Structure formats: structure tokens, C-alpha cells
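fyi for ur records
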Amino acid sequence: MEVMEEGNLMDRVQILLQRDLAYYEEHQKVLQERLCSEVVGGQLDFPHHASFASVKLVSWWEGEYVAAYHKPSDFLPTLKEDKNAAHSSDNEEAEAAAVITSVPEEFARLTESSAAQLLEHLHTLSQEALDHADLTVLTGTLGAAALTRNSLWCYNELLKRGSDTAGLSLHNSFKQFNEMVEALAERLLDLHNRLLSLYILQDADSLNWEHNQPFFEGQRGSFIIQMWWLYMQGTREDLWNTVPPKTAQRVFAGMLNESLTILTVRYSQATPSISRGNLLVIDISNLLLCVRHLLPAICTNKSELIGLSNQNKVVRDIHAKCHELLCCLIIRGCPLAVLYKHFRKPGEPVPIFSERPVTPAPWYMVVSSHHFTSLPKDNYATKDLPDKTAVALDLIVLMAQPEASWPLLLKVLMMRKSFLSTLLFHHLIHTKPAKEKETRTEVPKTAEEKSSSNNCEGFLCSGNCRMKGKDRIEDPLTQTACAVIHIAAMVGCIGDLGAVLQPILECPTPEIKNLWGCCDGRQVWDEHGHPAWFKALTRIMASSLEPAVKDSLRNKGSIKVLLNGVAQLAECLPTTLYGASCLLEDALPADVQPLGGSVLMQMVGAALYSILMDEGKDEAIVVAEALCSMDKKKYHHQVKEIKQAFAACSEEMGDKDDSFSTIEEVPYIADVYVSHLLLTESGKQALKTIFKFLQHNTKWILGKLEALDPNEPIHQMKVPKLKPPNPPKLLHSMFNIGAHKFDELLNNAWNLDWKGLLQTPLSLTAKKMWTQLTYRPEFREPEFLNEHDKKVVETISKYFSNYHSQQN
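which gave:
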């Protein structure tokens, strides 16, 4: 769509909105622009897409801001790259917006007025979407409102901080758009709930409980659960790809909670006939398995997933409803013979009536028995879970989120003494990449090509959404191994990094040459031949030692000045590097002689050599070559100072070899660590690399953690993959619940331990159990039973009659 780029802002906005409305009336859809994947979500919950009108208006606001303040706001990354040019009168962005010099008061007035016009325009579109139940238009309007809200928040923050903008505010405009986003999210949730309740959860045939013939000749469960499962899966995928992530999660949580309320009430109050009594039990078993796979998407950690946390109200309600369904499943589905054994003698204690201890939710342990080898009887906490189970549960939650949760990713990597990081690194260093993936030597030939390859061309793209630098010429396995070491070194303690490096420290003799060759003083120059773990350690050093190199080059390439600078910069480096060098030195083979007689100096030398070679100057190359042949005796004093400086920093920080990160015990520490990592390009790339690897190999990792569903095909977890897994086909999603087929209880593929379930403390009251028993067809229609079953029903009825009389 072409729009006028010249003239007064209000005139341009009016024409823009008129053309946007005309486009909708002609095509019955909203013209949208894609946002860069790097900015989607986050604290402000940016959308995946926004309408063309909102994107254009935000761009024009930036032009007005530049005209008023003579500098970019840094909200649009494209303007940030030309920050220096923004101070000149011929700034390209200012010319593109065709804005004359303005003042802050004019910027605030124009922004507020144009925002009000856009708000009215979006109200019109949203009403059209609701009138026609058009989800596409509704989500497009929601994205436009979310982008506008976020931009108004950013500009309002700039106004509050400015010394010359006293009294100026965009808070009212921000508040209006924020209310609109919340209202549209509520309307989206209402629309999905109406579709679920009116169309998906209605089936007159399978819900005809009083019918005297079995449904589908008793060969399957009802269609309702199957259609509900398919709708929830498809809607989750649509929400994840269209709606802002946090909003999508809230909408999906509301859908799951509301529909589960309907299903719980329906099945707990149903009074089926003898012919259809088993249908209810099969449906409940299918429903619980479905909820098990849908629940991780709305949880934030494993405590919420397994029911050990009550902070999330929606998740708590879902656990309560699933508990009701489990009780209904036990009472309605337990064979009469098993019930008789538990209720034949009045006065004997019944475990199911006992108060439920603090344990993982019983319903979740029933449908995820492969995570729990036995049902805990005493009070239980997440810290009591086995290491593999604890890591696997958090990993499941992480992979189900609508956006990458960096704090949770860091927690998964570092929890339980860096269990997952150690597992990943052990396999990565022993896995050879495929031949076609071994090297990536092709690099962009021109600056323009390089810029375009790093830019996704989405709105707000700053060029950081793709791999850059040295990582682009390495295979994905090497990148991931480097990223694991980087995270362990920057976030963990010496114990964490030592645990991850354990495969190196205990490597078998045949592999010594491949793993330890990088520590030989004659191999300082061979950067491309260094293994992943050594590259990661030296790159961390290189990022902080550049000042020492520049100081040396200013002093005619003096090696002494270079080494003295390293000693002064020791406190700028993570103390884990010194601890790692000590661990490596203790395990160093006898035939490997590092630079300066220590692994620490070998790491320092490799880092300095990399910086010098990147300089590309002849003088730097001369210094690099001199560093490789450095005389240990001549620079003995400088080498000693470097060692002492690193040792002093490590001692001052109190690092010990046996110390480990407490990231699992103190959750907010993960947020602190992540904020530091995301401030550096290397830390950001490390997190993104590991997350992508986990996405591609979730099933393989769960197999290594012994937490994969027993029904999962074994061939899917043999080796790690470099490509994303293929999404399940529609037919597979329709007839399977994850790795389980529908109606497993009916087909005897899932054998429930009814006796064990009756002995599980569930805080069930005798009154409630008797009410559910009376809904069973055997108790309502005893005339259809044989003499044996009639006697069983009579005995159980007498037990509860005596129990109630004793209680009264």
C-alpha cells in the first residue's frame, strides 16, 4: 500500500487510516507487517505481526521525535545504526519522514492526537471482527494495538526522563491502548470459549448416557474428547504464531480452564446406563492424558506442572479439576470386586479417605508414571525429585512456552550441579558432524551482503536475529559445545565448569591427542584446530583483553606491555577461567608443554593471538608471531604477575572447586544472570544457540534423561539432530495423544492399578464417594446384575450406610 510521506502528520494519518479501512472492506482482512523475531514477546509482549497502519504510524512518530529532539529515540534499530548522522540537519530518516524542525510539546501533541485516531480506527476493525467472528482480523487488530501500546510506553518513558519535557506525558494514550489490548484478548478468549462450548463439546449421540446400546458398539470413546484435543492443539499453534506470546499464553490458559470446567462437571454428574458406563471411564482417561500434554504450555516451572505450587491461580484450578476427574475415574471405573475388598468390613480405615500429603498431583503421577517410579507417601518437594526427573520436567515446560524463557533455560542448564550441561557437552565433543555440515567456509563477499544476511527485514530488526561472526563458519555441534562452556564459565562457579569439563579431564588415552593438542605451546596459532571447549574459554578472555593489545600496539608491539596489561585486566574476567586452568593443568598429559609453562598462559596466549590476527595490521601480525615463540625465562616476571593476579581475583571472590551455582534454590538468581548474559553479544548468541539445539533434540535429550514416554519410538532418540523435527501429521494428532493412542484403557494398552489407586490418600470424603457410587449404573440398576454382583453392591451400600450412621 502506497501512502503519502509528505505534509502534516495529522493529514497523513487520516489518509493512511482511510486507505487501511478501504483495504479491509475490499479484502476482508487487515494488511499486516511482520516484526523481527528478536523483539517478539519480551517484557513488553511485542506481537508477531502488526497492521501496516500501526507500523507506518510508529515510523512517523520516530520522525517527529528526531525533528523535536535532534536525535533518534533508539526505539527503531534502523535509526540507531545511523545515530551519528541523526545529529546532522540532513539526516536521512528525518528527510524520509519529511518533518521540519519541531519542539517536544509539538511531538507530544501530535503523537497523542494521531494515537487517538488510530485507536478509533482499531475499534472499528475489532467490532467488524467480532460481528463476523473473524479470528484473523481480531488477532491482526490485537497485534496493531500491542505494537502501538509498546511504542507509546517507550516514548512516554523518554518524556519522563527529559529535562526539557516537564509536564509532557503520553500516559493516557498508553493506558487507552493497554486497555484495548486487554479487552481484545478477553474478546478473543470469549470467542474461542463460545466455539468450544457451542460446537466442539456438543455431541448428542455420545452424550446420550441413558441409551441402552453402547456407543459405537463399545469400540471407542466419544468424539468429543478427540475433537476437543484437536481443536486445542490447532488453536495453541495459531495463538503461538499470531498473538503476542504472553497474551497467547493467557488466552490458551483461559480456554483450557473453561473447557475443563464444562467437561469436569459433565462427567462427574453423568448417570450412564449399563451399556454406556464404560464410555465415561474411557473418556476421562483420554481427557487426563490430553491435559497432561496441554498443561506445560501455561506453566512457568516444574513446580506448577506437577502441582507443588499454588501461585498460578489458573494452573491451580486445572489441577483441582483434574483431581476431581481422577477421583471420578477411580470410583466409576474400579471393578466391583476391587471395591468389595476395600469396603466389605465396616470400621476398617480406608486410605483413599486420608488427607492428601504434600506430593506431586496424584492425577499427574498416574498419567506420567514414567517420571515417577513410585508414588511418594510422605511430604514431597521439588528438591526431592531425582536429578534426571527434575531436569526433564523443567525442560518439558521450557519447550512448551510460546517464546524462549531465558531464565528457565539457564535454570535447566545449571540446575542439579549442571547436570544437563554436562550431559550435552559429553555427547557433543564425541559426536562428529555430518560431512556436508563439517565446515561453512562461505562468507559474504561485500558489506552489503553481510548486512542483508544478518537482517530478517522485519520491523524493528536490528540485525541481531541471526548468527554473526566466527560462529557462522562453524558446524552447529561445535557452536553448541562452545555455547555450553560459555554459559558454564560466565554464570556458574568453578564446580559447575569443572563438572562440564569432566569428560576432558577423564578422557581415555587414544583421545588425548585430539583433546589436549590445543594446550601445547606450539599450537597457539592454530585457532581453527582448537576444540570447542578451548575456543569457548579463549573467546571469553579475548572479549576482555582487547585494551591490552591496543596498548601494546601503541608501544611498538612490546610483549612486556602486552603481558602487563593482561595482569591488570585479570579482575575483569570470570574467576572460573582460573579455576578451569588449574583443573586442566592437573590433568595435563606429560608430553604436552603449554605456553609459559601453564595452561592459564596457553589460554591467554591463544586469546591474544586471536585478537592480534583480527586486527589484520602488519604490526599486529608481527606481535602475534612473537607471542607464539615467547621465551619463558625472558618474560618470567610478567608470567608470574599474570598468575598471581588471576589467583588473587579468584581467592577474593571466594570460589572453591566444590562450589556449585544455587540457581535452582533461589529462582530470581536466574533472572539476574540472564540480564548480564543478554547485555553481551556472545552471551545472547550462546543462549540462542543452546535453545535452538534443545528445540531440535528435545526427544533425544529426554531419552538421555530416561524421561521419554515408554510408547515413544526408540529410533527418535539415537543421535542429536541439526534440523528441526517435522511437525506431527494431522491424522497422527487426531488419533494420538502424544505417544499414546486414543482409548488405551479400552484396548488394555494402559493397565491401571486400581488397588493401588484406592490406597492413595486423596482427601476424598465418604459422602462424596457414595454420591459418585450412586451414579454408577450397577447401583442405580441392580436388577440387571447377576447374583454375585448384586451381593457386592448390597455389601458396599451397607458399608456406607453404617459409615454415615456412625459419623452422625
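Strands lie at 32-34, 49-51, 736-737, 740-741. thats all i got for now
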